[in-house]
């Protein structure tokens, strides 16, 4: 059955842009449905990496020779591209990190250590990835802060009324995920931000799953911090972004010490660099930063609204088809979701499901998805998760459903 979106995007042509998809796994054509963990990279992004290393590999900012100036220009062009992608007001508000986790840790260690004190309350949610739980727990242990948690209902949606009850003059920081990596739930982050600001709290939004699926405008959201990773928006691994409001970033001390983040160093005193460089110590991940601009251009060429519509079509179709299987229970039935579907099978461990699907060439994710508290909330050890990207098709969903039926036949 063909997707109604195929008239807008030529999916078969798009698939040719992703060389990794053209292979067989265990004698079957690869069906890659693990995009929430990382998605595949188009040839244009791969070429951008190669072109840097083959054509103008050099360290940036401090060199005056031609290659260094070329690399610096490409590196800073990516910063401007990310600024436009997020609609940040100032280019200095874009900090390059090594990923979402690194960005959250930067904020927790720099802002948290400077401004939070014993008795202050930090609010997170039940559906957070471990990377948005553990750094705040570490900070609470060090500073004596108190961690509060927004509960989740049976549909996998945050209970905003309970969030409102948690807010008080003691609330100093709120850190929540924009889109759940395990459920696909799209959280009402604008509402969350506004309510936090009303009590004077600062807000960080984990946009790791949202960045490739939703339009992000940090000025409209009024987010104080927003973090995401390049590898989940068709870019390279090991590269991420921290957006922060300029006034807040200016008030924060450096997170790491070393080269680039300084103006002058003596044994008596060091003077730190300006934004954004005071948070970018040492030689950065130059090639991957340069390549993220290409990834953003690739998505822009397809049209983010077209990508989102195609993925939504796949989610709707997969939900209908999997929902017809006896003994299968979908975990997370939020009204607003991206292309992520997680389920459990009666009497079958999720790891067995993943192994048998892999034998059929189908790549899915199994386990707790770095969301153990959320799994505990639903009384399960983990799920099987399929997550979609622009290059996936309804035919691949059909193969997934057939594969799950085979799992049930083999295991029951």
UniProtKB/TrEMBL annotation:
GO terms for molecular function: lyase activity. Residues 31-400 form the Aminotransferase class V domain. Its EC number is 2.8.1.7. It catalyses: (sulfur carrier)-H + L-cysteine = (sulfur carrier)-SH + L-alanine. InterPro entries: Aminotrans_V_dom (IPR000192), Cys_dSase_SufS (IPR010970), Cysteine_dSase (IPR016454), PyrdxlP-dep_Trfase (IPR015424), PyrdxlP-dep_Trfase_major (IPR015421), PyrdxlP-dep_Trfase_small (IPR015422). Pfam families: Aminotran_5. It comes from the Bacteria. Its cofactor is pyridoxal 5'-phosphate. Keywords: Lyase, Pyridoxal phosphate, Transferase. Belongs to the class-V pyridoxal-phosphate-dependent aminotransferase family. Csd subfamily. Catalyzes the removal of elemental sulfur and selenium atoms from L-cysteine, L-cystine, L-selenocysteine, and L-selenocystine to produce L-alanine. NCBIfam families: sufS. This is Probable cysteine desulfurase. It comes from Spirosoma utsteinense. The lineage of its organism: Bacteria, Pseudomonadati, Bacteroidota, Cytophagia, Cytophagales.
